[in-house]
């Protein structure tokens, strides 16, 4: 698929660069407007769980993120480009027009698009848009937006859509009624209950331990698994995709109406930013995890909204607009460099991450949904003489959850042990065999000979602590989980992150205990997935024998009795295990070949894998401990020299020593652990 001129070749250094990208992304949509301009349908014949009218409303509404930003800027906009969107709001809200969007009903997908339509009304100066409209058009818009009142909707980020509808009615449309103000207040009060800590909110009320027990009781009484939809998860919906983004826009547009709440949101943005920047590497790549990843560069939306909101006193490394600018523009530059396969030949965005991928898609992803990505480009609302654009960007600094709603591939998107901006993650496309359910950064269990596999999903509350590794104090996390709903096996996993001593390694320690006797059990655990093809001939990477004194290999698979390393063009991933104490536990190492198109970053991948065969099963109360050391390095983003990188980074694996009473390290840095 061809790159998109104006985006793929964009340097993303200035406002004029971003403006070029905005126009390049909007123009391919123009041929797909309906005659009345109220809908856009990209000619891809796929469906969603909601109706086609709502899907085509997405096509009209989602580009409003940047259309509104263009109108918000003091420069005269390109009216020829944006005029169809101005016409569309007139026809779409007119119940007498054949392109009327329809009335808003309970749980209606059209509620989502209310936020973009409201953003348009709030962002555009009144004299430029609202006051130029015919009174009948104004009445239609007011009537249509007002239909969202008192409608049932998911108690999640959707509440923000009604908040902005009410805010637009109040501030732009002049509808200052008790009903509008009461609805606004009640929704905000419920949204505020989603807050958890450190600037992060759940996408709904956080699931309690009591609900865990209630669900377990339901299972014991009825045999029905996963009966409750409540979640304990945070993802980009907590930040750039939804909640933080919306809070920041609320600061921008409602500061005069709600000063106390907006000041609290400013502090939450500071707390959130203190950690969120770590989700982006020095090249601008975001760590892909969670749902709706087809929104792609919307991952950087927090930085755009933060600048628009004018939040001050941000923590390091987001202290200044120059810092925030660097994070946003590096992210856009990364997408420009990786955009060769994200556009259809007509220039419209496709569904996927760095290439088209329907395994990744959600059941609510229409061909038009992808334009949620434009959230990160609202930065064009700032004038060219704004300090954000005038000041040079600063360089990159040195320096147990689950989702209860059964979204597609939610275990892969939320419940793996690790996620990476360099290696991405893999999604399943079928339930039969491990090849269809790639086990990268996953410990998978099978009790039917490997036909079906169970992985970490719903967990107990995570616990956190700290240990010392070579005079460096590092955090560790421990969580207990059950591969199967009957809880016949409980796994307690402790994660030790990379350290200064071992920057390319993290460690997983699994204590696996049987609550009842079991028959034969198979286990598989993988590291990060990597490109499986040689650069020169596109053939599968060969297995090679490397002497420990050599400097490594550029392309190939190195396998020993208890480790496997896969190296490809400067990237390398591997796993190494400590041999289990249980003698009847057979294991093998391999570079596992999953089905194609399951990894987000590459279409053909290999996963370093250890497989265990517990031939005689477990006795009730019996437990085993598995230690998996996971290696990953990418010369694209690390300090390692270009390939072949030094083998000593792979050969110098951490060593875990179990003790009775303490968790520490010895003089050599070996980790002593009581589990």
TrEMBL record:
Domain DUF2264: 14-396, 406-654
Protein's UniProt name: DUF2264 domain-containing protein
Species annotation: Clonostachys byssicola
Superkingdom classification of source: Eukaryota
InterPro entries, sorted: DUF2264_C, DUF2264_N, UCP014753
């Amino acid at each position: 698929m061809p790159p998109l001129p104006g985006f793929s070749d964009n340097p993303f250094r200035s406002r004029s660069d971003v403006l070029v990208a905005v126009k390049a992304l909007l123009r391919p949509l123009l041929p797909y407007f309906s005659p009345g301009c109220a809908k856009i349908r990209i000619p891809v014949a796929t469906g969603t769980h909601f109706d086609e009218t709502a899907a085509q409303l997405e096509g009209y509404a989602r580009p409003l993120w940047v259309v509104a930003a263009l109108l918000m800027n003091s420069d005269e906009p390109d009216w020829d480009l944006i005029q169809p969107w101005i016409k569309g709001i007139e026809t779409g809200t007119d119940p007498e027009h054949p392109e009327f969007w329809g009335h808003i009903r309970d749980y209606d997908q059209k509620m989502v698009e209310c936020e973009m339509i409201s953003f348009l009304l709030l962002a555009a100066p009144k004299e430029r848009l609202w006051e130029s409209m015919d009174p009948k058009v104004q009445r239609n818009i007011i009537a249509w937006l007002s239909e969202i009142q008192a409608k049932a909707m998911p108690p999640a980020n959707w509440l923000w859509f009604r908040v902005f509808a009410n805010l637009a009615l109040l501030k732009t449309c002049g509808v200052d009624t008790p009903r509008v103000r009461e609805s606004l207040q009640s929704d905000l009060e419920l949204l505020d209950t989603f807050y958890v800590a450190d600037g992060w909110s759940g996408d709904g009320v956080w699931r309690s331990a009591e609900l865990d027990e209630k669900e377990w009781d339901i299972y014991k009484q009825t045999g029905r698994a996963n009966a409750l939809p409540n979640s304990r998860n945070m993802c980009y919906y907590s930040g750039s995709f939804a909640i933080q983004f919306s809070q920041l826009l609320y600061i921008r547009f409602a500061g005069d109406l709600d000063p106390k709440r907006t000041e609290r949101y400013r502090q939450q943005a500071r707390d959130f930013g203190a950690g969120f920047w770590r989700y982006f590497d020095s090249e601008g790549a975001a760590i892909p995890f969670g749902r709706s990843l087809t929104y792609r560069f919307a991952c950087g939306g927090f930085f755009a909204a933060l600048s628009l909101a004018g939040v001050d006193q941000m923590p390091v490394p987001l202290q200044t607009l120059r810092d925030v600018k660097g994070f946003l523009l590096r992210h856009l530059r990364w997408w420009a460099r990786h955009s060769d396969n994200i556009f259809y030949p007509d220039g419209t965005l496709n569904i996927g991450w760095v290439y088209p991928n329907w395994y990744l898609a959600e059941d609510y992803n229409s061909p038009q949904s992808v334009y949620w990505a434009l959230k990160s480009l609202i930065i064009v609302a700032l004038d060219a003489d704004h300090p954000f654009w005038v000041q040079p960007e600063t360089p990159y600094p040195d320096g147990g959850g689950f989702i209860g709603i059964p979204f597609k591939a939610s275990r892969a998107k939320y419940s793996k042990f690790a996620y990476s901006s360099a290696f991405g993650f893999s999604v399943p496309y079928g339930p039969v065999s491990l090849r269809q359910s790639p086990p990268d950064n996953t410990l998978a269990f099978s009790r039917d000979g490997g036909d079906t596999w169970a992985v970490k999903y719903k967990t107990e509350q995570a616990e956190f602590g700290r240990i010392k590794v070579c005079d460096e104090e590092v955090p560790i996390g421990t969580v207990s989980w059950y591969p199967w709903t009957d809880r016949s096996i409980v796994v307690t996993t402790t994660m030790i992150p990379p350290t200064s001593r071992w920057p390319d390694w993290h460690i997983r320690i699994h204590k696996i205990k049987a609550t009842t006797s079991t028959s034969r059990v198979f286990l598989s655990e993988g590291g990060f997935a990597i490109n499986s093809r040689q650069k020169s001939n596109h053939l599968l990477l060969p297995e090679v024998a490397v002497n420990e004194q050599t400097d490594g290999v550029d392309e190939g698979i190195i396998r020993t009795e208890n480790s496997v390393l896969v190296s490809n063009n400067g990237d390398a991933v591997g796993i190494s295990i400590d041999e289990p104490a249980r003698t009847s536990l057979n294991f093998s190492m391999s570079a596992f070949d999953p089905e194609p198109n399951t990894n987000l970053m590459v279409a053909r991948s290999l996963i370093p894998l250890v497989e265990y065969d517990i031939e005689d099963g477990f006795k009730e109360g019996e437990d085993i401990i598995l230690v998996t050391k996971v290696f990953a390095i990418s010369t694209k983003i690390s300090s390692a020299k270009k390939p072949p990188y030094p083998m000593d980074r792979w050969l110098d694996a951490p060593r875990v020593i179990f003790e009775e009473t303490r968790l520490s390290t010895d003089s050599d840095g070996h980790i002593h652990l009581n589990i």
